[in-house]
Amino acid sequence: MADLTQNEPLARRAPIWQVKTRTRASGLFAILACALVLGLAVLPFFAGRGLIQDLFFILTMLVLAQLWNLLAGYGGLVSVGQQAFVGVGAYAMFAAAIFAGIDPVAAILLGGMAALAVAVPMGFFAFRLAGAYFAIGTWVMAEVMRLILAQVKPLGGGTGTSLPRSVTRDLWATGWIERQLDVKASAARDILTYWLALALAVLVISAIYALLRSRRGLALSAVRDNPEAAKSVGVDAALVKWLVFLAASCGTGLAGALIYVQKARISPDAAFSVTDWTAYVIFIVVIGGIGTIEGPILGVLVFFALQSLLADFGSWYLITLGLIGISVMLFAPKGLWGVISARTGLQLFPVRRHLEEGPVPIKD
After folding, report:
1. Were 257 and a residue from 22, 89, 168, 212 both cysteine, which residue would form a disulfide, CB within 3.0 to 4.6 Å?
2. Helix or strand holding residue 44 (H, E)
3. Does residue 8 sit within a domain?
4. How many distinct structural domains can be found in the chain?
5. Regarding beta strands 265-266 and 161-162, do their DSSP bridges make them parallel or antiparallel, or are they unpaired?
6. Per-residue model confidence (pLDDT) at position 14
7. Beta bridge partners of 355
8. For residue 178, is it within any domain?
9. In Å, how far are 69, 78, 210, 217 from 213, measured between CA atoms?
10. What's the rounded Cα separation, in Å, for the pair 213 and 359?
11. How deeply is 345 buried, as exposed, middle or buried, from its count of CB atoms within 10 A (0-12, 13-18, 19+)?
């Protein structure tokens, strides 16, 4: 009994295992990320219009890349028809602004809802296909949507149309921006859409990260890795795929509507461009690192740098992008972020669970 009494402090403390995802590096990055977002938010007060336009392009492409990565990298749904939702969202915004007189900023939400509505029948047919057939099927359906909207004469038909000048001049909050920043109406529209793109990028990344850390995120990864095994442990694979497909479609529609608020002109070939809204997005995810949140962030920066350096070289620009993409897939199949993470162990958005041991007092 004496021995037990002497060892009582140790006996009253027992190690337990705790499941954690956050790391010290991710905690520090969260602080830096908040500071970065704040800095980007106030940037229009100091930066020129050219930089704002460049950052708008980066942010919107980042949103599209993160959503495609959610589909393919985490859900195993390799879609080549995401341009369908960009185009539908943009055209829905134009229709609401021109025919119903709704402010284009508010009509962005209608663009997301329209993309969501289109995703239901599109998914009904696409989910009956698998693998390469799924990818080709989504591309074919996107082409069908392009051909349909090219026949809508009130929206310009095959040549497209522009937002009326009265609509762009009276865009929500642009008057306040003009007065506060002493800029013209066109520059105020760029600043407004930049702020909206920044908010959308933060929202999409945060939502994806929260999803991947949840039980549904585990179910999504299980369905991607082995659908049959996931079903055997009670995961509703069909429901998980539907939820991810619909969420990505709605987000892509929102991004498409926002992009064309900034452009203020639309045509079927531009809005449903497989190169601009799917091929480039796939390139960003592949070179950055598919199946990671960090990958598209790194990939979009690399893509923008390459575009700035090589865009004047015409077809050689596309050839160079193709060669870079093939090289990365051959020599770094997990992308540039995969190489960095493998060598340093760095994870800015950790989603994998790990066990940590720590003594916790046992209550009487």
Report:
1. 89
2. none
3. no
4. 1
5. antiparallel
6. 55
7. 19
8. yes
9. 16, 22, 5, 6
10. 25
11. exposed
Instruction: Indicate which CATH number applies to the domain containing 132.
Output: 1.10.3470
Give the integer Cα–Cα distance in Å for 300 and 68.
13
Which of 128-142, 221-235, 313-327 tops mean pLDDT? 128-142
- What does the angle CA 28 – CA 26 – CA 44 come to, to the nearest 5 degrees? 65
User: Does position 1 have pLDDT exceeding 50, yes or no?
Assistant: no
- What are the tens digits of pLDDT across the range 266-323? 999 999 999 899 999 999 999 999 989 999 999 999 999 998 888 777 778 888 888 8
Torsion of CA 152, 128, 246, 191, to 10 degrees: -50
Structure tokens at 280: 């480039």
In a domain, 358, yes or no: no
Give the residue-averaged pLDDT of 167-185: 82
* 94, part of any domain: yes
Reading the block at residue 81, the tokens are: 């028809």
- Using CA atoms, how far apart are residues 69 and 80, in angstroms rounded to an integer? 12
How far apart CA 320 and CA 330 sit, in angstroms, is: 15
Q: What angle separates helix 104-126 from helix 83-99, to the nearest 10 degrees?
A: 140
Beta carbons of 259 and 91 less than 8 angstroms apart: no
**In terms of residue numbers, what domain contains 190?**
21-352
253 pLDDT tier (thresholds 50, 70, 90): very high
Residue 360 Cα distances to 8, 10, 23, angstroms: 14, 11, 20
